Amino acid sequence: MENTKSKIRIYSVFAAILMSFFSLAFVLMIVRGIKISSGFEYLLLLIPIAFLFVGVDFVKSVRYIIIKSNRIRYFSLLRPLGKILYYKDYIGKIIVTERGRAGSYNAVYLIDKNNRTAFKITGVHYSNMRDIIDAIPLQTMAFSPTVKEYYKLLLSGKLTIKEGSNDKKSEKKINKLLVATQIVVVAGLFLMILGYLLRWILG
What we know:
Order of helices and strands: EHHEEEEEEHHH
Radius of gyration: 20 Å
Strand order of the largest sheet: 1-2-3-4
Distance between the termini: 66 Å
Shape: globular
Number of strands: 7
Number of helices: 5
Strand content: 15-25%
Largest sheet: 4 strands, antiparallel
Structural class: alpha+beta
Helix content: 40-55%
């Protein structure tokens, strides 16, 4: 079997580097001390902290992956020396359609012997995601997440898998909730910027 190597999209590389820089800068700001004088500013601080976790998760998900006949090896900014995963430690894989600002994309999760998701490859970062999925010689398990399972996978990447048929109602609910989440995020950013502007104007 010929090795399959991931083709990382250029914007994912630049985004990972930028997020690494801003995450480090934010951590340094916290270490050096941020002066907060009101409860509202404490509330606003939660927004960049949330983005810090999102940024770290994004950086972790951008990997250079080499798929071989009996194992996967990957490298990332957080694992520059790489890590090896052997197929014998997994019982299968699931493919989940995730949604973001760029549209829908596939994500593949490897399932360990405890029926738990153990490793994720996010399709939005790779131009040859179909080749990556096909090259992994593990059985594809039938699985379609409920709304709760979808968000648990999206936020933690950990879930106990139970094979089942597609649930179209769940897919519609997920789409609606994702739109609502985007509105909340945009509103939160607007309030944060507005708060800092008012503080700067009013002294």
